[in-house]
Amino acid sequence: MMRAALALARRSLGRTWPNPAVGCVIVRDGRVLARGRTQDGGRPHGEADAIANASGSLKGATAYVTLEPCSHAGRAGPCADALIGAGVAKVVSAMQDPDPKVNGGGHARLKASGIAVEIGEGAAEAAEINAGFLMRVRHGRPLFHLKIASSLDGHTATANGQSKWITGAAARADGHRLRASHDAILVGVTTVAADDPDLTCRLPGLERYSPVRIVLDSTGSLPLESRLVKTAREVPLWLVCTDIDAQREYFLREAGVEIVKVTAKDGRVDVAAAARELGRRGLTRVLVEGGATVASAFLKADLVDRLTVYRAGLLMGGDSRSAVAALGLAGLDFAPRFNLVSTGVVGGDTLETWRKAS
Fold it and tell me: Is 47 among the residues known to form the active site?
């Protein structure tokens, strides 16, 4: 039952920020009475959604929940109270919610009402599903997931800039799936100038789950005629800058672009400051797609938490453009390190998923 609840939670990834993605399954005598998950925009929560979907009385039932039920009132009442009111006899939580507004309070409220509480089943998977939420609560920033599509020798474009297409159609489609599971997608303004991308999710059925689009652009030079600006009122677009001309800022805001100003470092956007500001605005999962300079900046700032690499079966040579710009390493001991999570094949390309080494 917890596995089913975890699967429900995973379906909500990228759609619930600033709230966590939570799944809930309620059973009695081996029969599933209700299922629910945190809905788009973060409300209703998974427990409330399950209770609303119940096929009958939940009295004496057991609720399997992927995160501790909340104990504070926001736009709706606490989920702990909803479960108490529904008459459940037992709650099995995968993990405690470290948010200071909860942090054991939900479990305590359930116990005080005579409901049995078990904690820990499925904890590792629950923590991975909500790694972004946990990162924001504990460290004040989102989880950053770097995506790279490269040749076997780690290059993303030829010397003259040709990059379409290194990987095949299946890998590109999987990249759109990845976009849909994140709150935001981030690139640098150089990528926008070179490719004029849409940065949307274009998989059939997932178009409406395109994430917030973020462009790092120190001086606010984002072209007003770019596709991103032209569609800013359809899919949110945030421009993270350090300084911007007042007239250009006016025109960008008029087009629907949200301007996010942060401090500079070495003449560029300070990515650590940007990370804190994005966390303050509620983002929990950000997919970093490019380019080499942006990838390098996040790696040097030790901000890359997950890494997905789509690797095509071709070699491009040393005169081609690297996936990551210079890191300025003094030795191997200073190299960012990752642990392999999984490998697979997508069409004719390999897919590798890595997690930052602790």
Answer: yes
